[in-house]
Amino acid sequence: MKHTRNSCFIVFAALMLLVMTGCAPLVVGGAAVSAGAGTYVYVQGELKTDYSHSFEAVWNACERVMADMQAFDVVPEKEIGKARIDAVIENEKVRISLVYKARDLTNVAVRVGMLGDRTASQRIHDKIAAELAR
Fold first, then answer.
1. What contacts 41, CB < 8 A, 6 or more positions away?
2. Is residue 6 in a domain?
3. Greater confidence, 3 or 57?
4. Torsion angle of C-alpha atoms 91, 131, 117, 40, degrees rounded to 10
5. Residues 125, 112: Cα–Cα separation, whole Å
């Protein structure tokens, strides 16, 4: 009984240490990622990440990516603090959603296809990041 109690305490203490340091891995949608800048979370067919740029800068980068990838049937929707671009690229439906988080922090979610395609979504994120680096 005492051995079980000590084991539970050690496990609890270790978990608390990881949580309090902010380095605990997150398990989201079956994919494990660590918390912090430059990480991607793949949830329900959407690949999400935060960009350390203003909402307007990220919006403009997303528009340029759509043009560069020769998207058609492009439907942009923009409101205060959130935006969305629906389009078709290489015969796949694409949705890019933006959410304002802070002055220089914007969350972007990319979904390619009905169920989501992680590789294609990552390709679009890579292009957005490249546009923002210019």
1. 26, 28, 29, 31, 33, 47, 48, 49
2. no
3. 57
4. -170
5. 11
Q: Which residue has the tokens 């990220």?
A: 58
CA angle 64, 67, 131 (to 5 degrees): 25
3 part of a folded domain:
no
pLDDT at position 112 is: 97
Quote the number of domains for the chain: 1
Q: Is 123 helix (H, G, I), strand (E, B) or coil?
A: helix
- Dist. CA 15–CA 7, nearest whole Å: 12
pLDDT of residue 98: 97
Selection from 12, 7, 13, 30 nearest residue 118 by Cα: 30
Query: Could you tell me if residue 1 is inside a domain?
Result: no
Across 113-127, average pLDDT: 95
